[in-house]
Design a protein that fits this description.
This protein is about 55% helix and about 0% strand. The chain is an all-alpha fold and about 60 residues long. The chain has a domain of about 30 residues. The protein starts with 9 loop residues before the first helix and ends in a 15-residue tail after the last helix. The model has no long low-confidence stretch (mean pLDDT about 85).
Length: about 60
């Protein structure tokens, strides 16, 4: 399926979203909230793995 890229301003997007019926708007809000939580957790998890990139940590790399 081909991808379509749209250049839409925040104001235009907001105007389109506010045209949605209430139940669809609530569904969209839930989806956005879930995505935001996922991104936040992924960013937090990245900090836990930074120490593995340090010098001397390559001793833990598997050798084939």
């Amino acid at each position: 399926m081909p991808r379509v890229t749209l250049e839409v301003s925040i104001e235009e997007l907001e105007a389109l979203i506010f045209q949605l019926p209430a139940h669809e708007l609530l569904t969209l809000v839930d989806a956005i909230e879930e995505r935001a939580e996922t991104v936040a957790m992924m960013q937090l998890a990245e900090t836990a793995f930074r120490e593995w990139g340090g010098a001397g940590e390559d001793i833990y790399d598997a050798k084939a």
